[in-house]
């Protein structure tokens, strides 16, 4: 039986974290030491984007962790612990963390993400006005820019289509201007509405 079929059966074809039933996918939990079935969960897009820190945490969405944290599936326990740690400033999350027990090997796996050491905030790519930037967006330059190592001067008002966000730096995006791929600082762009 395929992994996705096993997880569908295990989950009852619902998100194993929040219970949603639409657009579910197999998600491999980061830093997993075990086999694919034990280290994967079946989740919805909203859970995935928040786990991957690509969206701001929705505290109400995660209140179901008080139930799912008791799952016998190691990957669900680990993700529950990580998300509760990100939300630990909420009294309900702190209370659940106090009650939750993980065996040493699972606790080591859970701590590998570092979520217990951060404040749970999510840094996202935002334009000069604070609008969220994502791969494929179109932006407009708000300042004329000289491109280092090139004679190219990108003029204010230039439209840059199909941008790519730089994964490890929320202040940078990549885009093509006059056929040349360049890195652009997010503080010099404005998202163009569709």
UniProtKB/TrEMBL annotation:
UniProt-recorded name of the protein: PhnA domain-containing protein
Family annotation (SMART domains): PhnA_Zn_Ribbon (SM00782)
PhnA protein N-terminal proteobacterial domain segment(s): 6-52
Organism: Terrimonas rubra
UniProt-listed Pfam families: YjdM
Domain of life: Bacteria
